[in-house]
Amino acid sequence: MSGSDTPLDGAPLDPDGSLDDSLPPAEAFALLGNETRITILQELWLAPDQPVAFSDLRKRVGMKDSAQFNYHLSKLTDHFVRQVEGGYEFQYAGEKVVRAILAGTFTERVELEFPVTGECFDCGGSLEAAYADERLTVRCAGCESVYGRYAFPPGGLRDRSTTEIEAAFDQRVRHLHCLAADGVCPECGGRVDTNVVPDDEDALGLDVRVDHTCRQCQHTITSPVGLSLLDNSAVVAFHADHGVELDTRKHWTLPWCVTDASTTYDADPTRVTVTIALDDEAMDVTLDGDLRVVDTERRRAADGDDAGRVSAD
């Protein structure tokens, strides 16, 4: 596993690839393996203002023994919280721990199915969302064709209707891919390498796919090529010219976005073209192997462009 070659604040990397003065992962998790310390982090999060004085934080936690409380707080200090004038406040790592708890990442196990917007491009059947293993899958209820499967924290289901969950998932997928395409890992902030490759391993059941892989944590997001075009200015303008607001359409209802039926691929040099058809006009968007748009062309639509046709409603 390789790390980012430009660490935070320009700090040099040790020979083993870690940042100077970093805490070994096993020690970091060991520090959190105590109910009192987790409660300290949660109560610091819930405090209306920061920093929180030592005495106020102890009262919030409900521990009468000042020495015992100080012992547990000291184990968190410098890695998860820091002492400043006036009391204690979060380090970034401490905030991440609490957010993971709130998201249900370590504690909740949920399974759920519900109908979502759209029809299957293969059989015309209704689509449904299936949630399990902290991932939400959009698939056909009939033939089970899959139009997306991505991580979605269980906390994202809390206090939302199924319609709101559907909208939140759509926005999450859009933003995760935009971040990855911009070279930033949505998990750890590390550098991301993007490659357009043949789907030889049948990861998505397509002919060609996009892999976004973090150099640092090896987190990988895989998708059809078209998904990267949702925020492309030329593509957005093309849809707007035909009365379609692209940001309000669920991405799995766009055939050019979740399939490669209207995608052509050339290996040497790598060129992939996505064709989008609206009314009597089509747009060809050509990208290179790094997912950079190298050409766009608008033209009169032909019968062969129907695979990428977008409905107006």
From TrEMBL:
Transmembrane segments: none annotated. It comes from Halobacterium sp. NMX12-1. InterPro entries: ArsR-like_HTH, DUF7347, DUF7351, WH-like_DNA-bd_sf, WH_DNA-bd_sf. It holds the Pfam family DUF7351. Residues 118-293 form the DUF7351 domain. It comes from the Archaea. Residues 25-101 form the DUF7347 domain. Gene3D superfamilies: Winged helix-like DNA-binding domain superfamily/Winged helix DNA-binding domain (1.10.10.10). This is Helix-turn-helix domain-containing protein. The lineage of its organism: Archaea, Methanobacteriati, Methanobacteriota, Stenosarchaea group, Halobacteria.
